[in-house]
Each structure stands twice: as C-alpha cells, then as structure tokens.
UniProtKB/TrEMBL annotation:
<protein>
    <submittedName>
        <fullName>Pyridoxamine 5'-phosphate oxidase family protein</fullName>
    </submittedName>
</protein>
<dbReference type="InterPro" id="IPR024029">
    <property type="entry name" value="Pyridox_Oxase_FMN-dep"/>
</dbReference>
<dbReference type="InterPro" id="IPR011576">
    <property type="entry name" value="Pyridox_Oxase_N"/>
</dbReference>
<feature type="domain" description="Pyridoxamine 5'-phosphate oxidase N-terminal">
    <location>
        <begin position="42"/>
        <end position="160"/>
    </location>
</feature>
<dbReference type="Pfam" id="PF01243">
    <property type="entry name" value="PNPOx_N"/>
</dbReference>
<dbReference type="InterPro" id="IPR012349">
    <property type="entry name" value="Split_barrel_FMN-bd"/>
</dbReference>
Amino acid sequence: MLPHAFKPDAAHVITDEAALQSLFEPTHALAIQKCQNRLGRHAQEFIRRSPFLCIGTQDRDGNADVSPRGDPAGFVSILDEQTLAIPDRPGNNRLDSLRNILANPHVGLLFMVPGFDETLRVNGQATLVTDPALLNTMRVNDRTPTVALVVTVREVFLHCAKAFRRSHLWDPAHRHPRSEMPSLVKMILEDTTGAPSDDDMRKLDDALEDAYAKSMY
C-alpha cells in the first residue's frame, strides 16, 4: 500500500479563480452558447438512447459522491422540457445518493450512449418521489421501483468527444480481460478482513451471481 505522504508544494497550488484562468485560453464561444436551461430536441433524443448515466451528489457538508444508474435505453422518463424521472432500482441499500439528495438536492447527471463519444450533462435539483402513477410507468419484470428521482433541469449541454477518444472507451481493442483482477467479493475481502479459501471464495462469488439474477429489479 502506498504511504499517504504526498503534499503539493504550496507554490504550485492554485487558490483563486484569476490564477486558474491565467493558465487557459478564453472559453470558446460555442462552449458558452451550448448551455441551455431546458431539454431541447437533441438532448431529449440523447436521453432516450441512453442506457447508462452517472449521478453526482453531495451531502450537507459538501462531501461528494458519484453513483452509476443503468437500465434498457430510455429508462429515464422525460416528463417535460425541464423535468426528468429516474427509477431507483434495487442496490446495496447504502442509499448514498438518496440520503445526499435529502440533505442537498443539487445533482449532476452524465448520460452516455454506447458508441457515442459525446456525452450529455444535466445539472439540476432532485426530489425523491413515491407517486404510484409515476412509479408504475417504470415497472420492469413486474417489479415497481420504490422511489424515483425527479430532477428539475437547470442546465443542460452536450460534452465534446475528447475524453472518450483519449480513453478509447468503446474500442474493443482496448478492452481489459476481466480475469486480470479478482472478483468483486474477493477484492473487498482482501482489502478488509481477508479472503477465504478458494472453495469458499467460489461459493461467495456464485452467491453474488445468484443475487444478481434474483434482485436485478
């Protein structure tokens, strides 16, 4: 394990906006123009195609968290030009994002579409909703989500392709074999209490896969 010893030289730490801006060229006009306060035609179409998003939240003390959300494409409902609804599917019941929203409703969403190098960013305020009429529209495999995140859109814009092209995220030639690292359960145990024998480890891994199959929705 790496020692926690790195401290940047104070002479090389940026502490104000003027110092930050001095390092960069002025913002491109298109980057300013693209910011909208509602979901236009293309933003809506992007969301309908997206099977995956990340949601950024903060607690009341400003501690940040990012959580993935995924379902078949179009799982995020577009209620109107300024309102989205995201179903909350079964997870580990940590409820990190939901607790944060209760404390601080400001959220950031990043929508992705497989094969698209561009992403869609949406910023706004979220409310946790249990309205049966809404939740019933989000049923999958006869299972209704317990809660939905209803997001009031404040800012929306398309993000350019540079990050995805640098990372080669969708390029099959750059995929890593999953076997290069241990299973999820084994990694957690090795970093905490220690992993059991190979036979017991296989049982734990099989139990997780069984849980995936039974509790996806």
